[in-house]
Model the fold of this input.
Amino acid sequence: MIRKTTSLFGAAAALALALTACGGTGGTASGGSAAPAGAYDKDATIQIGSLYEPQNLDNTEGGGQGVTEAFNGNVYEGLFRLTDDGKVDDLLAKDYKVSSDGLTYTFTLRDGVTFHSGKALTSADVKYSIEKVVAPDSQSARKSSFAGIKKIETPDDHTVTVTLASKSISFVYNLSYVWIVNGQAKGLTTSEDGTGPYKLGTWKRGSTLSLDRFAGYWGTAPTNKQVVFHYFTDATALNNALLTDAVDVVTSEQSPDALAQFNGNSNYKVNNGHSTTKLLLAFNDRKAPFDKPLVRKAITSAIDDKKLLNSIWGDYGTLIGSMVPPTDPWYEDLTKVNPYDLTLAKKELTDAGYPNGFEFTLDTPNYDPHPTAATFIKSELAKVGITVKINIITADQWYTKVYKNRDFAATMQEHVNDRDVVWYGDPDFYWGYDNPQVTAWVKQAEESDTADQQTALLKKVNEQIAADAASDWLYLYPQIVVASSSLSGYPLNGLNSQFYAYGIKKSA
Amino acid sequence: MTAYLLRRTAFLVVSLLLAAVVLFLLLRLLPGDPANSLLSVGATPEQIEAARHQIGTDRPLPEQFVSWLGRLATFDLGESFVSTLPVGPEIAARLVVTVPLTLLSFVLAVVVAVPVGFVAAHKANTWYGSVLSGVSQLGIAVPVFWVGMLLVTVFSLSLRVLPAGGFPQDDWADPAKALTSLTLPVVTIALVMSASLIRYVRSATLDVLGSDYLRTSRALGSSFARAMWRHGLRNAVVPVISILGIELASTFLGAVVVESVFALPGLGGMLVKGLAQHDYPVIQGILFVSTLVVLVIGFAADLVQRLIDPRLRHSLARDVR
Done:
């Protein structure tokens, strides 16, 4: 029976798994707009369709991408909020100061903020919430970004002081991922106590999760009374729900083929936003032949990314030629660094000592789009004499074989986070790119005094990894939100898996 | 009969125990580390170790087994590795969908299959007898998800008379609404299931129609209807019931596919997710409960057969003595 069910549903289940596994964060999103905002129903219920059900309701206990989508900014708030263009705004922190050595941050909390349980927000809750993320048993995807915290103090109820071991210009940005929870609340895997504009209604596992407008919210009240997330495991079932008006909006369309039925239909609007998810052909840079930059460059130049993207996503998606998506401050178009050019690829292979090509195994996750892309890569590389053996593996095997044991020649993976170019500064990361200069730049960037300085350094990092073809960045996924035309004010980018619902309006 | 019941119950308990052992061991033979489901790209080696410790897969196997079995004895199915939430209550919540789905489909399938199968046999030589038989043959060959998608396309997307999927958030609080949600899934399963049932009913009826006792009964002056009612039906129903037991069990397990097509929060979706994430407690819990249900259905089918067929009763009575 196990075999039967997996073979029938392997693809869908694995997709869900993989997305949650790699999920967790990085980016921005906030109320964009779609349909004309005329009169709207202030007490509307917004039905939201999604493929990402939370595992549980706590993002430090493995709640995954689903809980980020439903709760970030809606139920829980951070000291700061990421805006749609990737900037950081004050949220629960009214103000903050950084000491001249850049090591001590003093945050002043907003007044009059209460949790859904009625308790007032105090600095103790903030301390508790940050400690929860860095605790030894924390499963937070952001845990490692807070490794530099030395101590957290609460001089009074409205002030929190955090001392860092080394300077960290991303500290405030990173704090936007930390949910401020009531330090006395219990059972947060099935309930919540946040300060957001919505409180949890009911969560019917495997099916729906509803959020109700919180009357005691400190800020602007949501433009709807309730939102209900409907969870699907099958993309077709999700699209059918939208077609039959069972849901009003789909947070992230993952089925390119389905777009045809919504495009050109005036009842729906297909929104093409920005994503931060990159599809990588990642080499094991430690091992021959991929320890030679020329070989990696040759492969990058031998694959027609444009054709690949088009065959998978049609007119959607973007080519970026590096690890940095346009929403990151240090983005620049690097698609010309290793252009698609078979002659160049052959020359580089010859220069690297492989005039007749070679053979390698490509560890390919078994869910879309990886197998399709792998087959494409195989046929592209055959043209320059390289033989690719495709080895299909599960998401689980990927973590063990590739991520933990680094037992691979090349692999494919989607990297969902924004600002994750910094992984190229870590020689211990699974792909093993080891350039001391890049490592130094990444470290210096983090210790920068100004954002400009940080941006300049990370641009250098980005240019260098592109020049070295540290990996082959095939393309940037599209982020497609499909919604009923009666809806407006929904997030378009949904970067970082967030889906702010408080600005959604349903026409009356 | 009491001795039979006792013996049969003991058999049930032993089977369950064996199932528990096999389930536990088979899952551990699968390649893969359940801790991986808790990770995301960027997890540190310490986080990986913490994940393994948290779910207890760093403990020796026998220890894990004994602790699972110990809790099982108190009807505690443990907590999911991934969600950390208890498995038992979630299974119970899912059964609220899966059990009605299974039973309704089963009843509908029987209601359709018995008369159709009978007519297909009784009128085997007419054109519609052949058509019925042919259609049922076709029905067996059609995959259940395809039937589901077809029904959605017709009744939800085109005619817009029934929902394409989902289940009310408040379950059966509004029975009409819940039933509406279950209509298409039930019809889907029943259609596919009745196709094979029709074949069984037809062949059982054919056997009876060609039997000596029926001919004798007719020769003694009974009408066809009376002969069928007194002798035919009782004989035909015996093999059909044992098949029904198996069909009911497989419907329960097969609901997995239909639940996904119709986005129903049943046991199937939970199992598929559990499998993908190597969430042992979830998989073990569902398979254990399913095993229990299947064994109980088999038990019930046996009992019913025995009540209907005196031959089985008597042969067994002799056995026991």
User: Anything to note?
Assistant: The mean pLDDT of chain B is 85.
